Amino acid sequence: MNAFPTPHPEETHRSHRAPWLRAAVLGMNDGTVSTASLMLGVLAASGGNTGAVLTAGLAGLVAGALSMAAGEYVSVSSQRDSELSDIEIEKKSLSENPEKELEELAWIYQKRGLSPELASEVAHALHEHNAIDAHLRSELGISHDDIADPIEAAVASAVAFAIGALIPILAAVFSTEETGTWIIPIVSLITLFVSGAIGAVIGGGNKIKAALRVFVGGGLAMAITFIIGHLIGASV
Question: The pTM is what?
Answer without folding.
Answer: 0.73
